[in-house]
Amino acid sequence: MGRRFTVVEERDRRSLRSKESLDIVKRLMSYLKEDKIFVFLAIFFTAASTIFDIFTPWILGLGVTSIFNSITNGTGIDYSYLIRIILILGALYITSSLFLLLRGRMLVKATQNMTYRLREDLSRKVKKLPLSYLDQHKVGDLLSRMTNDMDSIGNNMRQNIAQIISAFVTIIGILIMMFSIEIRLTLVALISLPLSGLITGLVASKSQHHFRKKSSTLGKLDGYLEEMVSGQEVVKSYTFEEVAIKEFQEINKELYQASYKSQFISGLIMPLTSFVSNIGYVIITVLGGILVLNNALTIGAIQAFIQYSRKINQPISQMAEVVSSLQSAIAAAGRIFQVLDAEEEAPVTNREDLPEHCCGEVSFENVFFGYNEDEMVIQDFSLEVNSGETIAIVGPTGAGKTTLINLLMRFYDVNKGSIKIDGTDIREIPRDDLRNIFGMVLQDTWLFSDTIFANIAYGKPGATMEDVVKAAKATFADNFIRTLPEGYDTIIHEDGSSISSGQRQLLTIARALVSDPDILILDEATSSVDTRTEKLIQKAMDELMKGRTNFVIAHRLSTIVGADKILVLQNGNIVEQGSHEELIAKQGEYYNLYNAQFDEEESA
């Protein structure tokens, strides 16, 4: 249960590894183009704050020199000068902090807008993806990309942008100040910079793989949890708890190892760069002391220089943190771009000659289809359906019944052949227009966390209460709805657990009927209702099917006795077709299926 998507997940990892981190960063930054003003202001406030902060050691050094000279010369401390120094330092610190506050607001605005646009693009993309893509990816994994990965991008990018700007301005500004104080000491200090950069690059390259694996495994864990939570009844019914816990522990352990390795390896950057920086700091202190003793530098100047030598290591340490968090953001962005780069459903050029009304004539012409190209589920399938006919499709599991409906709705496209409605190939009809032709009731019922009215009205935008009640009465749902505490305003859960399975099915049928479709598809529509309710629904459906083309997939053969044509499928081929009476008279496959089911019902 937890291994079905292993191949797809591994393929995604290989695809992600093939992407260059720099390209991902460039693409990610392109989402900030619409917020240039906020980014510019963030850069300006960061630079201004950093510049003000850079001057503080130099000004503080002037005060130290003044005190030292006053003591050594015996002239007394110049308190008025020191007060001015303190006031200037206070003003610089306050201004620097104010600019940091403004920078934070600008970056929050810019990065939140970035993730907002990115999330919108991802949401639109998911709606354009073919069903085959969604079938191959866990729902939890896609949700993880839209939530966990989005949050990782927003939080890390906000910190990274600020630290990168601050580090760049700090290094340039401090180098200028250091060169102005003492060139020889500055050259000594510069030795540690390329060495620290080399260490950062080497360690980052080692940890990037583990950050990517961490994001991928987190999505895998979310997908597994989504399966387990939504399928609790099945898990408990088959006493699968111990196996589920064991599988969860395996995935959780994989996530722990990836997280541990990514954080541990990236965590080596700071202590290694700090070690290099400390060596440089010791050398500068010793040489600076010698220069002071030789009167080549003032005590305040060396004090300021030592502070600068420590400050210049701060951006190096910041960059170490940036590299670590940036890798997490890159891994998250890479997973999102995988979805955004996925192949969409083939576009359809709008045809102006398409009729406004659908008559409901359907033809399958030599259709071949397989979910995998090497394994055809439907082979050379042909069928002509006249307007207003009811076509029943029966057959064993895996015969291709639901696949035919998926092809008709263009959830999948045929590999070969064509499907036509009113003589027009459905691949030439815009998908929205095509699917508006159909009303569909799925075998697996699904309701939204909303009112009963909203769930039924979902089938027809702008549906009135009169429309909804009419559809509910036609499907015999009105009676039980009115017994609920709030009637049509009753809130139900997305899985419909607050009402019975039969009642859920009635609501989904009402949802399909309120749309007043030209072609009606019922995929095991009465599989979840009792015999009495089934008969009521069938009576209503017989009336509602008049004037429409209908496709009915059913295991209960008693519900399709009145169909105009019954198709018996085996391995994607029609082995028998005809009316109920004709097929019974043949005493073939349908005859055997019908009698076997009748005997089961009698014995029950």
Provide keyphrases for this structure.
604 residues, alpha/beta, four-stranded antiparallel beta sheet, 23 helices, elongated
Folded structure, characterized:
The protein is α/β, with parallel strands linked by helices and 604 residues long. It is 64% helix and 10% strand. It has 23 helices and 12 strands. It has helices at 6-17, 21-29, 36-73, 79-128, 131-135, 139-146, 148-181, 183-190, 192-230, 232-237, 241-267, 269-293, 299-311, 313-340, 401-408, 431-436, 452-457, 465-474, 478-482, 501-514, 531-544, 580-586, 589-603, and strands at residues 362-369, 378-385, 390-394, 416-421, 424-425, 438-441, 450-451, 491-492, 519-523, 549-553, 565-570, 573-578. The protein has a 6-stranded mixed β-sheet, sandwiched between helices. The radius of gyration is 35 Å and the shape is elongated. The model is unreliable at 1-19 (pLDDT under 50).
Q: What's the mean pLDDT score?
A: 78
SS summary, helix count: 23
Helix content: 55-70%
Q: Major β-sheet, in short?
A: 6 strands, mixed
**Gyration radius, rounded:** 35 Å
The count of strands amounts to: 12
Report, as a whole number of angstroms, the end-to-end distance: 33 Å
Write the layout of secondary structure elements.
Layout: H1 6-17, H2 21-29, H3 36-73, H4 79-128, H5 131-135, H6 139-146, H7 148-181, H8 183-190, H9 192-230, H10 232-237, H11 241-267, H12 269-293, H13 299-311, H14 313-340, E1 362-369, E2 378-385, E3 390-394, H15 401-408, E4 416-421, E5 424-425, H16 431-436, E6 438-441, E7 450-451, H17 452-457, H18 465-474, H19 478-482, E8 491-492, H20 501-514, E9 519-523, H21 531-544, E10 549-553, E11 565-570, E12 573-578, H22 580-586, H23 589-603
Helix pairs in contact: 1-9, 2-14, 3-4, 3-7, 3-13, 4-7, 6-7, 6-9, 7-8, 7-13, 7-14, 9-11, 9-12, 9-14, 11-14, 12-13, 12-14, 18-20, 22-23
